[in-house]
Amino acid sequence: TENMLWGGRFTGGLDPLMVQYNESIHFDRALFAQDITGSIAFARANAKAGIITQDEFNKLEQGLLAVKKEWEDGTFKIVPGVDEDIHTANERRLGEIIGKDVAGKLHTGRSRNEQVATDMRMWLRDELRKIEKHLQDFLNVTAARAEQEIDVIMPGYTHLQRAQPVRWSHWMLSYGFAFASDLERLREVIKRVNRSALGCGALAGNPFGIDREMMSKELGFDGLLWNSMGAVADRDFVAETLQWGSMLMQHISRWSEDLIIYSTSEFGFVRLADAYSTGSSLMPQKKNPDSLELLRGKAGRAFGHMAGFMMTQKGIPSTYNKDLQESWEPMLDHVKTVSDSIQIANGVLATLSIQPEKMKESLDPFMLATDLADYLVRKGVPFRETHHISGRCVALSEQTGIPMDKLSYEQLKGIDARFEEDISKVFDYEKSVEMRSAKGGTSKACVQEQIQVLKSMIA
Ligand code: ARG
Questions:
Q1: Ligand 1 centroid to 116 CA: how many Å?
Q2: Please, which domain of life does this record's source organism belong to (predicted)?
Q3: CATH 3.60.20.30 fits 7-103, yes or no
Q4: Which one of 42, 166, 341, 456 has the fewest beta carbons within 10 angstroms of its own beta carbon?
Q5: Which pTM was predicted?
């Protein structure tokens, strides 16, 4: 225990399993660069406050950069049982390189509590900004496809039953707007993640008059966390990221589910590129949409991390408690899952081929039953009545086996005398789609407008 940073008051050794149980180095080493950058900023501010000399600062900075280089080159040797976390490991190695006299001054007034919050916030901010780019790319592909394939019409479903014809682009944009809302939310989350905890000490603040604003600027934060106890206590920024990512994964999962259904032989609307499918070891004909199934499956994993960490955080008393170390692994895994998933989804969409003929074949005249009712509405008949009349046309078609659009004018007239010759014009899928011309609808002009709105949200 005497090697430990906190070993002064301890005499007995730790239980060996406790050593492993306690240490976080095997995952928090991923943030070695943030830890060192944060330490340099802290040392610089301590020099400015007159706590260390300029010369000492120079030694600390050079030493810290040398430690960083070892991590980058893969030569850093973790000392098992001593390097309990990334902060401890870096400081131990710094002491070996520049000597303990100067290295021992780095931590003046500092606590690992502020350090860990600072490292995680810096890392998360940078990762979320990368994710923001991936999401923009995905949305750009969505918008571009929606533009190119605007003339393709497909069956729209409710309850997975054929409902009304819509543009294929309209379907793509329905998810596009969900992802655009995720993008808006992400930008909000980044603002709250990117606040500085450095200079808050263990909980009560810094006693050496350290310039927190200066450190915050150097580290690229947008501002300070304003209460030192709160700054070291919360991992709300992790929880909010997990919640954000869960919503996004929910959208990805539903999007995937639609495409899985559309890619079956029964539907045949889309075909996945080879790059995102796999075969069967037994059945030579198989091409399975594994990419989409994994996207759907990984949503469960993302939600699990979110729910799990909410549980962890809920009962923790004020300020730092070791429970908070349990925020790391959900964060690291969740961020990777979300980032990879967006990129995979983008790849799937960018390489997907569509089968417009199959979509067309799946349209059936019953999907125009509402249009038939609307026809009579335009002749002044109340909708409740026209709904019923159209229902009788559906029934007649079912009884006779004659498709609804092939029922004779006389047959329709027999059901309601207000049908006129022009009723035949109702049975036109393109026309049905074009009728939905109020904003947000599936007419061509509306879809074009949606594309413009979506693009403005991406920018
Ligand atoms: N490894 C710790 C964590 O991730 C760092 C903070 C340790 N602080 C402490 N007071 N033991 O939470």
A1: 7
A2: Eukaryota
A3: no
A4: 456
A5: 0.95
